[in-house]
């Protein structure tokens, strides 16, 4: 009922709610008109864009889509089948109700059945429901915004894989913490190892748990002597589980020996020692276990205890006075690694903090969530894809048009970029007329860049009919996340390289380093799809882009050459064949951006010199650029117009090369079209 009522409420109020948050975001922009332009640009129909999607097909554009009924129907089905979970309560808090194996098994089954939503791991729920991960994340973010759920940041324990600790704000996570479940000391220093979890409000699912349940390894479960779940009660009354007592026993009597008895949910960790084998005449030992007496969580006064029984026939009278779910988990006393370590291959997938901060709904609804500024609590991302863009010829643009008209054109270009970037990643900041964006996926970054290159010249046109052109650099690697001006910004060499790669690019061109295309097969697939005009997300028209040669960039401040390749917009892809004209003497293009032209002042010219199979070019701020092979570089760099027959021959050879690459990656591509 809680899901129904809250879900309907959000559905009715969604339009106003969404606009309220858009207004908050626009207030943070330099000008409200920029946000309005972005919204207008996003609303345009583009023949190259993807087909209209069903309600639950994508998490990129919520406006007008409403809630995903498929997702919430799945959540409701879990609640309806599983609840209520627990046993009847007794009025007397000191009383215990006997429970047998059937009761214990039934309760455990129900616990497992709601495990998917207690707490919610978006990645797991997406896998089990069939709803795309991005959509599940979006639904839960909106559910959090309206009070149906709460979002928690929970670092993954290096040893047991459970939540080390949790916080409602990512900036409040500690730099170090001992795991609540297994007590392992953890350093919290990377966003990739921080899980994003959601809990349904108590109006929907009322759960009494002191800590998140852990996922035991197969090796650990092989050491089990007893595993039985015990529900919490609001009165504090308890339950009896019996071992070796005949009727309704959970198992035969324990053999003599020392056992580990622990529960990560109630944060208990103790020992059970059975002194002798039980004889047929032995009466069961009543072992009263008040949970508060056996908690071992590192707090003052808590410590491991040893519970001793003379033989293996035991009535466990469990009093859950901490009002927390409890597991009577008795295992052979073996090493901690066997009992507590969960190997990577057995860990369930989870949504990381890196993925979450790049989700567009998170940016709209929780942009105020930034990392800590404390030096000891810095977080890094092991692999983030950074994109830098810049307007070509902006100085001449302002000089020729005047500040006002030029600024309006730049704002329009911002709208196009923001639309392309925020549907797949996040805009970090603007620097003058340049934009810095980040992505958690190489594919998303490459697709966003292709869309931007294609749309900016088409939608941002100067009064004389010439298109506004941009250049883009893409690089990935590790970076430190820092709070700057109220947003999560990045610091490190990866940022420097990405910016310098952009500076080496010509008009209407995008360079992508080998750190992206060489190490990410999915990004490489997207790259070749774009060249072939077979990328449903950003380019479905063959002949829109052509590839650039593989290039070694010798960048200032970078000791080793950076290998890059990319794509450029073809001249014939624009309505005006001559529209890719010289706007910037520093980064001019001729023949659709395929070659640079000589310019005046600080301009640079491509020559045919060099050694052996190399052709060398030197744009401003870049120590050197070398391309191979020479024949390809010469064709790309020549300022002489090639005749149409030669151009057609080269294009056909290039398309054959692309087709061969696509044929080797069929699973990643669509089959539409001949190209």
Structure description:
By secondary structure, the chain is an alpha+beta fold. Helices cover 31% and strands 22% of the residues. The protein has 19 helices and 23 strands. Mean pLDDT is 79; it is low at 1-55, 574-643 and 665-675.
What's the SSE blueprint?
Blueprint: H1 2-28, H2 32-43, H3 69-82, E1 96-98, H4 101-113, H5 122-129, H6 133-145, E2 149-155, E3 176-178, E4 185-187, E5 194-200, H7 218-221, E6 224-230, E7 238-243, E8 257-263, E9 268-274, E10 285-290, H8 291-294, E11 306-309, E12 314-319, E13 326-332, H9 336-340, H10 353-357, H11 360-365, E14 379-391, H12 394-401, H13 403-422, E15 426-431, E16 434-439, H14 442-459, E17 470-484, E18 487-491, H15 493-503, E19 509-513, H16 514-517, H17 521-532, E20 545-555, E21 562-569, E22 615-617, E23 622-627, H18 630-637, H19 644-663
Parallel strand pairs: 1-7, 9-11, 10-12, 17-19
Antiparallel strand pairs: 2-5, 3-4, 6-13, 7-12, 8-9, 8-13, 14-16, 14-17, 15-16, 17-18, 19-21, 20-21, 20-23, 22-23
Radius of gyration from the alpha-carbon trace, in angstroms: 31 Å
Give the helix/strand class.
Answer: alpha+beta
- End-to-end separation: 52 Å
Uncertain ranges: 1-55, 574-643, 665-675
Strand content: 15-25%
What's the overall geometry? elongated
Helix content: 25-40%
Number-wise, the strands total: 23
Q: What count of helical segments does DSSP give?
A: 19
What does the main sheet amount to? Answer: 10 strands, mixed
- Average pLDDT, to the nearest integer? 79
